[in-house]
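Dear colleagues,

For the upcoming journal club I promised to circulate an example of a predicted protein-ligand complex. I picked one with adenosine-5'-diphosphate because it came up in last month's discussion. The inputs are reproduced below in full, followed by the predicted structure.
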Amino acid sequence: MARLFLGLDSSTQSLTGTVIDLDAQEVIFEESINFDQAFPDYGTQHGVLISEDPQIVHTPPLIWVEALELIMQRLVDAGVDMGAILAVSGSGQQHGSVYLNAKAEAALSNLDPNLTLIECLTGVFSRATSPIWMDSSTHVECDEIRSALGGLQATTEATGSNTFERFTGPQIRKFYKQEPDAYRETKHIALVSSFMASILVGGIAPIEQGDGAGMNLMDIRRRCWHAGALDATAPELVDKLPSVQPSNSICGQIATYFIEKYGFNPGAKIVPFSGDNPCSVIGTGLVKPGMVAISLGTSDTYFGTMAECRTDPNGEGHVFGSPTGDYMTLICFKNGSLAREQVCRDFKLDWNAFSQGLQNTPPGNNGKMMLPWFEPEIVPRVLQPGVVRKNLELDDAFGHCRAVVEAQMLSMRLHSQWMNIASSEIYATGGASANLDILQIMADVNNCPVSQFESTNGASLGAALRAAQAWTMDEGASPEWEQTVAPFTQPVPGSRIDPQPEAVAVYEELLSEYALLEQGVLGGIT
Ligand code: ADP
Ligand code: XUL
């Protein structure tokens, strides 16, 4: 019998299911359910409820429950051998939280296969909607928690990140302050990930360590709840949170509901669900310290794997646990494709012409530099946007093409230095990774080979691979992570771009010059 593993990714806009066959080394099922399209009655737009206050972004958790039921039906309809699924794991959009009342535990452990999941779970919420990662309404609570923990560096050192508006701790604090009665009625607080796992396991599921790191509540090094952070957040919080568990553990067997209704194997194991970022690290094959993925999407995101826990003294980057037991970082640069596109618009260039600009200018750009803050920037923190040019004439189209990309790559290198790792291999993903001229600059600035990596459903694939790894370990084997992920996570064949030594030397020098320019300007404008 085939050995199948299911990964589910409950993301902002959709739920994706991925089934892998471990022996055939292939993905045999992959489907997504778009929330807005499948469940229009909830009135979500791009998966979230529109609120009068743009800082408040919530989603009704029942939409995730409906999607879970529907994906199960899709698996059956697609002819997946449900009895051959040995373990299930999942991924959830990080930071989002679900608030359950005193009825929840009994409802979860008595899911009735004659009813729908929605029918079984209506009435178990002490908060009708869930704040998600796009919510930025907790600025005051961030300040309060940070100061109770002793300031920025102490908070970052303790929890892996500075306090951020979207992180779960500040969100819980706001709920406690604004709706104290509903907070009191809350018996359990789950993450999106652990909520989904709770349904599958038919009980309150643990929070996985990697995802727990996105809460400002977990001790990042000891990987358990941080008493001081809990105290700084809300009273009696320790009683409302489940335990924190390692990624490779088993949290139970699949609930009877799914066996009876969808034909799951009665022995199928549930592996703790993690966050979408830790799962993507696995789905992109970043299982060795020093491996890095750079996603060139609307924003540019840097994911790196490191063996030791180091935190960002400036509090700009995040440290989460990696499912391998290592640590991962996530650093988000807002002016990614947004900035490159603005240069195209300003000079009426298409991507071919933009590439010509890169091909017709030398590494170092003859001293022409830019700070590419077309929009407010996350890293470094720039609240008032403004593009800064040095030796760069306003009408120099090709100079701008190179200046924006060099600035982005130098900034990524500069602001990931606190990790103190030498990157050994970079995988480039996202729309702009199609552009080989951009990737050459990435390779040269980092003095590291870059390969293109096609990643459409990296989080759900990563979840399926995590299920396979945990199940195999539970069977008594000790497979290397590399062995598990390699057949599913290879970069695009033949896409490797090596650094060019002369260009590397130019950028080594330029890095400190860029840092000085940035420091000088930041002193003035932030
Ligand atoms: P998202 O973050 O929305 O998922 P994608 O990863 O899909 O974004 O990336 C889309 C972006 O990729 C487009 O907005 C565009 O700016 C950029 N892009 C597409 N092709 C190229 C190219 N050849 N060169 C540079 N950028 C490109
Ligand atoms: C990470 C973050 C998002 C969410 C949703 O800190 O906020 O990446 O995980 O994808």
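Two points we might discuss: The pocket of D-xylulose (ligand 2) is lined by residues 93-95, 133, 166, 214, 275-277, 318, 330 (CB under 6 Å). Residues 501-525 form the longest helix (25 residues).

See you all on Thursday,
B. R.
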